[in-house]
UniProtKB/TrEMBL annotation:
Natural source organism: Actinokineospora auranticolor
RNA-binding listed as a keyword: no
Classification via SUPFAM superfamilies: P-loop containing nucleoside triphosphate hydrolases
The keyword Transmembrane helix is assigned to this record: no
Residue stretches making up the ABC transporter domain: 21-252
Entry keywords, A to Z: ATP-binding, Nucleotide-binding, Transport
One term of GO molecular function: ATP hydrolysis activity
One Pfam family cited in the UniProt record for this chain: ABC_tran
Family, per entry: Belongs to the ABC transporter superfamily.
The protein, known as: ABC-2 type transport system ATP-binding protein
Length: 336
C-alpha cells in the first residue's frame, strides 16, 4: 500500500501510518432524532484532535460509535486500521477511553474500581496490575483519595478516575470525552499536561471539549461539529488561518482605499496600520483587484488571525453550512 493509493495515510519514512480513526458517511438516528449525519472524520496518527461543538451536536455519539459502544445506523468506522465492529478485538486493546458513564461501582473505592478494570485489561499481567493502578492514580492526582468509596467522590474526582482507567497501560490512541468536565482549574491544567505527555510519547489523542481555549492550547487538529455534521476539520493552524474574517491592507492612501472598497460594496474601515477589510462577503484576491483598479498603492496584505472562539462562533451559527463553502475555498487542500 502506498500513500498515493490510500488517501489520508501519512508517509513516515518508508512505512505508511493509517489514521488512528477514520469514519465514512457515519450516521446515527435515535427514534427519529438524527444525532450524527454524513460524518467523515479523520484523526491522523500522532495528532491531538479537539472535537468541538455545541451541546447536542453529536460529539459523544460520534465517539461512542468510534469505540464500538453504539452501533451506527449507517456508515463505516475504522479504528487503528481495523474495520469496526469486526476488528474490535484487534483495535480496542490499543485504545484507552474516558467516556461518560464508565460504569464504576459506587460501593468500591477508587483503587478497587481501577483494580477491577485492570483485571479485565488484556495488556496487563496480574503481576503488573498493582503498579499500573498505582501509577495511573498518581498520574491523575487521585492517589490521596484512592481508598475512598466512589460514591463519595466529587464529579471532578470521578472524572480523574475515568482518566486513570484510560491511562492504565500505554496506548496508541486515547479518546477523552469532555475530560475537564467538573474539574477545577488545577485539574484542568493536569489534564492538559497529561495530553501533552501523551502527545510527546507519540500517542494519538481525540478529545471533545466545550473549552475553546483548551482546544486552542492543546490540540494540533480540530473537528467542529454542528447539528450532527462536521462543519470543519483539519490542522488547527490552517483552520484558524482560513477562518480569518479580516484582511489588513497597508497603504499610505487610506481614504482612497476605503472609498474604492465601499464603492465595490466591501466593508472596510481605517485603522492605525492601514485599512481593515471584512472578508465575510468577498475574498482577498478580489479586494486586491479592487484596490489596484482604483490606483491604490498596496504595500502589504495580511490576514488577521481571530482565534478559535471567533471561528467556532461563525461555524456553529445557523448559517454554518453556507459558511463552510467560503471556508473550503480558502483551505489548503490537505486541510479540507
Ligand atoms: N441514547 C439516546 N437516545 C436518544 N437520543 C439521543 C441519545 N444519545 C444522544 N441523543 C441525541 O442525539 C443528539 C446528539 O447528542 P450527543 O450527546 O452526541 O451530543 P454532544 O455533542 O455530545 O452533546 P453534549 O456536549 O451536550 O454532551 C442530541 O440531540 C441528543 O439528544
Amino acid at each position: 500500500m502506498t500513500a498515493e493509493s490510500e488517501p489520508g495515510t501519512v508517509a513516515v519514512g518508508a512505512a505508511t501510518v493509517p489514521p488512528a480513526a477514520r469514519t465514512r458517511g457515519l450516521r446515527k438516528v435515535y427514534r427519529g432524532t438524527v444525532a450524527v449525519d454524513h460524518v467523515d472524520l479523520e484523526v491522523p496518527a500522532g495528532a491531538v484532535m479537539g472535537m468541538l461543538g455545541p451541546n447536542g451536536s453529536g460529539k459523544t455519539t460520534t465517539i461512542r460509535m468510534l469505540l464500538g459502544l453504539v452501533t451506527p445506523t449507517s456508515g463505516e468506522v475504522e479504528l487503528l486500521g481495523h474495520k469496526m465492529p469486526d476488528g474490535a478485538a484487534h483495535a480496542l486493546p490499543g485504545v484507552g477511553a474516558l467516556v461518560e458513564g464508565p460504569g464504576f461501582s459506587p460501593f468500591l473505592s477508587g483503587r478497587d474500581n481501577l483494580l477491577r478494570v485492570a483485571a479485565a485489561e488484556p495488556l496487563l499481567t496480574s503481576a503488573e496490575i498493582p503498579n499500573a493502578v498505582g501509577e495511573a492514580l498518581e498520574r491523575v492526582g487521585l492517589a490521596h483519595a484512592a481508598g475512598r468509596r466512589f460514591r463519595a467522590y466529587s464529579l471532578g474526582m470521578k472524572q480523574r478516575l475515568g482518566l486513570a482507567s484510560a491511562l492504565l497501560v500505554p496506548r496508541r490512541f486515547v479518546v477523552l470525552d469532555e475530560p475537564t468536565n467538573g474539574l477545577d482549574p488545577a485539574g484542568t491544567r493536569e489534564v492538559r499536561s497529561v495530553i501533552a505527555d501523551l502527545h510527546a510519547a507519540g500517542t494519538t489523542v481525540l478529545v471533545s471539549s466545550h473549552l475553546l481555549s483548551e482546544v486552542e492550547a492543546t490540540c494540533t487538529h480540530v473537528a467542529v461539529l454542528n447539528q450532527g455534521l462536521v462543519v470543519a476539520q483539519g490542522e488547527l493552524s490552517a483552520l484558524l488561518e482560513a477562518g480569518t474574517a479580516n484582511l489588513l491592507v497597508t497603504t499610505p492612501e487610506v481614504t482612497l482605499a476605503v472609498d474604492a472598497l465601499r464603492e465595490d460594496r466591501v466593508a472596510a474601515r481605517p485603522v492605525p496600520e492601514g485599512v481593515l477589510v471584512d472578508l465575510t462577503a468577498t475574498t482577498a484576491p478580489d479586494v486586491v483587484a479592487s484596490l489596484v483598479r482604483a490606483g491604490v498603492p498596496v504595500h502589504e496584505v495580511r490576514r488577521q488571525r481571530t482565534g478559535l472562539e471567533d471561528l467556532f462562533a461563525r461555524l456553529t451559527e445557523d448559517t454554518a453550512v453556507a459558511d463552510l463553502a467560503d471556508l473550503e475555498t480558502l483551505l489548503p487542500e490537505d486541510a479540507r
